[in-house]
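User: For a reading group we're discussing how well predicted structures match intuition. Take ATPase AAA-type core domain-containing protein. Before you show the prediction, I'll give you the sequence so everyone sees exactly what went in.
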Amino acid sequence: MPWYEKYQPTKLDDLVSHDNIVKSMRRCIKSRRMPNMIFYGPPGAGKTSTILSMAQEVYTAKHVSAFVLELNASEERGIETIRQRVHPFAATKSLHGDMKKIIILDEADGMTKDAQNALKRMIEKYSRNVSFCIL
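Assistant: Thanks. Here is the predicted 3D structure of ATPase AAA-type core domain-containing protein, as structure tokens, for the group to look at:
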């Protein structure tokens, strides 16, 4: 197991130097309102760790896989990924009360133009069921 995976934060309290972001995320969790989010910054800044830590607090570690879809958009960058993976996940409602499911698109700037357009339509249509997190 790589070092960064072994020591990756699993709770918001484990994050270092993201105090304002953590406070905002705690407010989202408390109010049970999860907006769509865009995170930006250099590689290794903690974008993915931050959103995954929040997801684990919302859903608990054993339920994360059912309520969170994480894709590396630079590897799965085409419209077929949007159609075959994102759409089916987004189209179904969360069984976790009023909390939305989460779709994490890491390196979304690597997506093709067609995939970006399809994603835009998904965000417009399914934001009631899903929070889209673009990293």
